[in-house]
Amino acid sequence: MPLFSRKKSEDAPARPAWEPLPPPPPVREDGLRSLEDHRDYLLSCVNELPAFGQQLLDAVDLAICEEVISPVSLPGFDNSAMDGYAVRAQDVASASVENPVLLPVVGEVPAGRPAPHRLSPGTAMKIMTGAPIPRGADAIVAYEGTDRGATDVEVYESSEVGRHIRRTGEDVAAGHRVFRPGDQLRPRAIGLLAAIGKDKVLVRPRPRVVVVATGSELVQPGQPLPSEFQIFDSNSYLLAAAARAAGAQVFRVGMVSDDPQEVRDLIIDQLVRADLVLTSGGVSQGDYDVVKAAMPELGATEFVQVAMQPGKPQGFGLIGHDRIPMIMLPGNPVSAFVSFEAFARPVIRKLMGVTPYVRPAAKARATHAMSSTTSRRRLARGIVTHDDDGNRLVSLAGGYGSHLIGDLARANALVVLPEDTDLVAAGDQVEVWLLDEGL
Ligand SMILES: Nc1nc2c(c(=O)[nH]1)N[C@H]1C(S)=C(S)[C@@H](COP(=O)(O)OP(=O)(O)OC[C@H]3O[C@@H](n4cnc5c(N)ncnc54)[C@H](O)[C@@H]3O)O[C@H]1N2
Ligand code: MOO
């Protein structure tokens, strides 16, 4: 016993009283929270990132936050769809290969310039694709229907009023709304914005997502494994790649050991550049479950068990004074990925303002029996194919274990096996989350 001992409260550094998390949804009688309740709770705890003006090419795939009314018509003026001659349809009505019509060529209109003068009856004017139709002309004859003459042209085919003429506003009318807030700017949309003369748009930025893997057993890929009992860190790559595919700007920090102070120091350093922090590992019941041990000191946190397999242990927090959202995923690689799909991807999409936040569910016919787990939703790894009629079929990509990253890599879907069902029979329809496009 020391003679003098200081009071405990003086020893321990004062722990800031973090503003608590919003009230979480209640757990079920078995102590688990449903997948939907947990996902909706996380979504309710994050806000869309503020919008800012971006150059067009930096806005690809982002959600626009303004209504865009086209200030111009597209096309902006009647113009030619072909290189050829502007004529009056009635002047070439009788033209054929046997009986060509001969017209004097009275001028030329390149793209970007007006016609030199009005087209008089009985004459032709050379015209290039995109050039404005001269007043007096009402049809185009393409070069291929003529002898391409420079001073006079022999026309071998008839035309009709409007042939090869692209009309003002037939694509987009001036004053028409071309985008509304929330639309995601795919490359085609970027093309339209440029076509109506916009060089900047108001969009929500890509969320900056910091990815950290925890675990003293982890070794950086590319380095030698110091012992046969260590493993390469796959989760930080898996999660970074998935976050990038979801639209985030990713900072893969890599690995940190199971030392709580090291984890805290690293997270504090990273908060400054994060809109979201994703970690893997250290959220279960183990003696070294470092994330669970370290993070409550840095913010308001919650560790909960979700009624899903894999992905049961989950952590969430609003960290630091800026309350940066942090999703603490379980360490088993398949658990980390499935949890990313269920929770982190919707959150990233909400930060970006891109809807729907959740992947739309699809259906597929099971090609063989699949077993669920009692009271937990099973998200099995599946391979979706199509039958001859184009209907979706799904079979399992290997086993149910949450360490089977080889099977995960072969899968293109997650098969949702309900908690109230023990067995899905061959031929039954099941819900699938399609992970790749075009399935
Ligand atoms: N007594 C109990 N033990 C466990 C429970 C439980 O309820 N009671 N839950 C199990 C479930 S379910 C899961 S999921 C895991 C989650 O554990 P942690 O989040 O604490 O993860 P770790 O223990 O750190 O790692 C689990 C597993 O994954 C491997 N791992 C971790 N990080 C990586 C990485 N970056 N790259 C590749 N592999 C990684 C790690 O080596 C472990 O094998 O807990 C169960 N236990
Ligand atoms: O729930 Mo854990 O994620 O099964 O492996």
What does this structure look like?
With 439 residues, the protein is of the alpha/beta class. It has four domains: 16-49 and 205-352, MoaB/Mog-like domain (Molybdenum Cofactor Biosythetic Enzyme, Chain A, 3-Layer(aba) Sandwich), CATH 3.40.980.10; 52-73 and 181-203, Molybdopterin biosynthesis moea protein, domain 2, CATH 3.90.105; 79-166, Beta Complex (Molybdopterin biosynthesis moeA protein, domain 3); 362-434, MoeA, C-terminal, domain IV (Beta-clip), CATH 2.40.340.10. The chain is 18% helix and 28% strand. The protein has helices at residues 8-11, 35-45, 187-195, 235-245, 260-271, 290-294, 333-352, 405-410, and strands spanning 52-55, 68-69, 79-80, 84-87, 101-109, 124-127, 139-142, 152-155, 165-166, 177-179, 200-203, 208-214, 218-219, 231-232, 249-256, 276-280, 299-305, 308-309, 313-319, 324-329, 362-366, 370-371, 377-386, 392-396, 413-417, 423-424, 429-434. It has a six-stranded mixed beta sheet, with helices on both faces. A five-stranded mixed beta sheet has the order 7-4-6-5-8, with no helix packed on it. Strands 21-24-23-25-27 form a five-stranded mixed barrel. A hairpin with a 5-residue loop joins strand 23 and strand 24 (392-396). Helix 2 packs across helix 7 (333-352) and helix 4 (235-245) runs parallel beside helix 7 (333-352). The radius of gyration is 32 Å and the shape is elongated. It starts with 7 loop residues before the first helix and ends in a 5-residue tail after the last strand. Mean pLDDT is 94; it is low at 5-9. The site of molybdate ion has 8 residues, from loops. The site of ligand LQZAQKY5 has 26 residues, from helix 4 and helix 7.
